[in-house]
What does this fold into?
Amino acid sequence: MFPLSTLTWVSVGAILVLSLGLMVQTKRLDSLQKEYGNFVVSTQVQGDATKKLAEASNKANKLNRDKVNAENKNLKSSIAIVLNSLRTQHSASSFVPGISEGSKRPDLLCFDRAEYIRADGEFTTAARRLSDEGTEATIDLNSAKTWALNIN
It folds into this structure.
């Protein structure tokens, strides 16, 4: 048989150490790949569950929004009907005082009566428009608050 030299023993030892290191690293890699696979599956399951939950929540929120929008529309219509009725009932009333008896110039009362009535009409129309806008904004805000309180 051939005598083995020191170099041969060192080479054999190095090969054994490298083989052992390769086995350890292979086991670690397999373990990490298995752990990664479990992580991916777990993440997919959680993502699917969260997606289903979000879809259900969005559906409920849309139904709530539609309900609140319908209530908002009905309330605006009801208020418009009541306001128009009140305005129709009181359309003939005027803030301009009547003509005093014995007036030398019944068309004037420290101001031009026709001009005052015209200006008063413009003012009343503008004030009603602003009031209606404010009422509508209040209704919209209350509807938004109602919807927001019921968000899932």
